[in-house]
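SEQUENCE-TO-STRUCTURE ENTRY
===========================

Backbone structure tokens: a row of integers, each naming the local backbone shape at its residue.

Task: work out the structure tokens from the sequence, keeping to the layout shown below.
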Amino acid sequence: MCNEFQIMTRKRRSKVPKRSKSHFAYDFLRLKKLSKQRQVQAIRMANGKFIRSLCGHVKKLKHAKLSAKTASSLRRHSKRLRSLTNSRVSIKKKRKILTQRGGFIGTILTSLAGTVLSELLDTITEE
């Protein structure tokens, strides 16, 4: 297994301080740096906790301030976004939605970058 795929797998060997609330922000930033093909592979290998956290942050996009261009690109994927935020949809189906082609994962990652970075800065300032 490559080093870049160890970010979200079940066996975690991270150097993140134990005081931080979650490893999600660090994993998210590492995922964002990967190429599109590697992002899809990493999400296929991700554990359920990471997928749940990602979907929880997608839910926060409803109240986030977004540019017009980002909002219109997210509006195109509104049906997928609703199924990601639905708690009755299984993790297996959510993973399948995230790994589908068509630029969906790139749109989500760029939209979520601001909210995840603000969460990361909040955890750093608390320490």
Remarks:
- DSSP finds seven helices and no strands in the chain.
- Residues 104-126 form the longest helix (23 residues).
- The chain has a mean pLDDT of 81.
- Residues 23-63+72-126 form one domain.
